User: Fold these one by one.
Assistant:
Number 1:
Amino acid sequence: DIQMTQSPSSLSASVGDRVTITCQASQDISNYLNWYQQKPGKAPKLLIYDASNLETGVPSRFSGSGSGTDFTFAISSLQPEDIATYYCQQYDSLPTFGQGTRLEIK
Amino acid sequence: QVQLQESGPGLVQPSQTLSLTCSVSGGSISSGNFYWNWIRQPAGKGLEWIGRIHANGSTNFNPSLKSRVTISVDTSNTQFSLELSSVTAADTAVYYCARDLRSAYCGGDCYFDAFAFWGQGTVLTVSS
């Protein structure tokens, strides 16, 4: 299995801050990397696919970058509704997820 | 817009077989060239992909669960199901069904994809 390591595991930031989350794969996965947002009691929501493509309807303050083994997810200006847990997921082989990053408002 | 909804018993006894169904609306399973997935999440923990099925019956499974998992498509082509045998407390989780973002693309094997459409999840507890 390809292991996905996210950091940090939790993050506290203020409204308007730029927030970044990193995800590292245990082997080269090219750009086969997606990012999801999960709010409490809800299903995950796809935000970014193929490392950097914004899913339809997702606000442009969300972005993704990277290839190979190192990837970054960013929120350019944190909004109150962005409070959630964020997961990366690789699909170069059988899908696996990172352990999640819990984002809180400071 | 495709919509998915899981249903299941809520409670299963240890060593029994759990059966969950995902109902698809806004299109049939056979109307597109997509894979349909099962994913689970224990309370307070991360996400684990269980397996997937295509309308043509092709399946892939997580090796850690493969010996206990069956995924099938209903003849109505509006439902697909998950069976997990010999359950233990470790199988207690929220179970989600989800559809791939894009039509299946296959070389020798069929590539995996992002999960674009999700059900709301169904809670399954294994307890006597």
Number 2:
Amino acid sequence: DTGVSQDPRHKITKRGQNVTFRCDPISEHNRLYWYRQTLGQGPEFLTYFQNEAQLEKSRLLSDRFSAERPKGSFSTLEIQRTEQGDSAMYLCASGDSRTDTQYFGPGTRLTVL
Amino acid sequence: QKEVEQDPGPLSVPEGAIVSLNCTYSNSAFQYFMWYRQYSRKGPELLMYTYSSGNKEDGRFTAQVDKSSKYISLFIRDSQPSDSATYLCAMRAGGSQGNLIFGKGTKLSVKP
């Protein structure tokens, strides 16, 4: 257990529905990352926060995706109008700025029917 | 050509064998190199973290980085069935606060 929690662990939804995932990072870490991982691939970067500021976004993050980190604590990732291609594992990583290391949560597995 | 190349395997070895896992990369700006272990349907777990070139040892695990060849390796000594997992290499550029670039992962199976 890395101390990073994600909720829910699994989500099944129908195409066109909106979904929201939550990540609670390690409390003393000020950096938070979202990645997406599909079967047989490594994680791909989506976006990054330092405290409450969203500092970097991948071109993978279409306008249907939005992420927030109010007050620099937990973060949410919302996907609007889900598509079947959004089916993946969504991983959150908590970043320790002192050591430049990232610790991953267990992930949220999304299935879009 | 992808920035990070990793043979997906699968790799099957007998218990007690020495395992060698490798990645190559193309971006000479990469300075931070990591190995993560991922069990099925779980999040990646950080195993080794190395800055720039050289070796780092932690128990049965040794990480090597050869920046001149753009090649990194992870060695596992006295492999155990519990080492069966997917091993992901990851790296990022110096001065970057941000994202890691991952290989596809190598699936390892250690047979008793």
